[in-house]
Amino acid sequence: MLVAYLQDTSLSVVVGKSGIPAAVDGCYRLDGLRGIIRDGVIIDPEAFRSLVEPFWKEHQLETKRVKVVVETKRIAVRTTEAPVFKKERDLRAYMQREVQTQSRFSDPCYEYRTISTDAATNTARMLITTADKSLVERIVGTFKQIGVEISAIATPYTSVISFTERMRGDRTDDTVLFLTSDHDHSVAVLFKAGLYRYSSEQHLFTDYGTPDFGGELLRSITGIEQFIQADHISERFDLICLLGLTGPASDVVEAAIRSYDQTLRIAEVREDEVFAAAQPLASDDVVDILPAILGLGAFDNGTALVDSYKTITGTGMTTSDKGDLIGALKVPVICALACIAAMAGLLAWNAATGGQADSIRNSLMTPDALKQISAYNTAKSDNDLAAATQDSAARLADVQQSYPVPGSQLEAAIDECASGLVTWTPYGYSETTGQYVIQATAGNNDNISTFVERLGAKASETGGFTVANSGYAYQETTTSTPGKTQGDWTLYVTLSLEEGEGR
To answer: CATH assignment of 408-497, given 3.30.420, 3.30.1360, 3.40.1130, 3.10.150?
Structure first.
């Protein structure tokens, strides 16, 4: 397997085999891509091809079924509930509608998988990944022009989620938090009762492995705690597993956690639990290519995101739910009607010929009649199940229509308030509670305060949400000038979306 890690400044390639631990056979890196890639989008395909094509040939890299991990905000991950369907096609039709109505992208590609099921309610908890179609199109198309076939796309965020999902079987703790980081981003993944529950990604502004770095990762932990409170999860995690953080980086993160809460248990996921390399890798190299290494073990769930791009038209869903349900019911209903007609014809024939009860009973015991009765019973059972599933889907859809969505209008409002003051990124979202957490960063606290004031005014002006300020903190970093420091203010803001907002 070959996994390419695409960043705005570089391309890293890892060759190996999937598994826990993953087997790393070779690593390669190409720098000099700044200005060619922006937020995961290849904005200069010609320049990209001129650099990547000779790099690929030089190292004789595989050209078929290549996996890409791309650093971008144009891929979103969330959870939702769906009815339990007997047939995959019915689930697929339902998820098509779910993506079409709730994705923040106008033309999304998507993939999904089941996290857990609830037999009492006949529902399933689903993890949905959606991507901007233009992003997938540009990646697949540009690599195709240099003779490389892309079969799957993920982000560092989704790679960590997939990898930790596969590791959770070895973690028997009820509620556990996995925490990992490269030089630019940290990812926190929460598991409850062994099942994925929530995750968040945070852009980093400090140098990897410094004390300030430990403080930044601590804010990832406190952000998860805010989500737990907002989503009414009773159990607080009591174990934090540091994934890929070793040596000085692990020490500063552990020190920051200890200063915050002495009761939390901390465990390191050892490097040999994550991967085994044919040749020793330096610690800095591991940090740089960790998302690609995790990607080796992150694609066993399929290639649905790219497959979705290949099959979905520009309008997304082409068949209505009504049409899908009719299609699902068509076979059992027709079969049931045919069997009923056959039985009615048999009874009518016996009555017309003056047959008695015994004659009718005897005729119903013939092999052909018994076969028809069996077919009828099977069709009726399928029809009843389909009707129950349809009813469950309808009831769940009614409930979900009340869930708010942090759509493009809300993001445009936040952008307007942030303009000239702060940079912001989504931090977390719970569709059942409507809690949308964002992270904002500015060079001074006056800009932070003004941003919050603007948000409050916008909420009063437009309605649809209220603002809860979670507080902010100053993060100081050293500069190249001796004795001189600089810093940023970081703020977490919780927006409480009103019922039905964004629909």
So the answer is: 3.30.1360
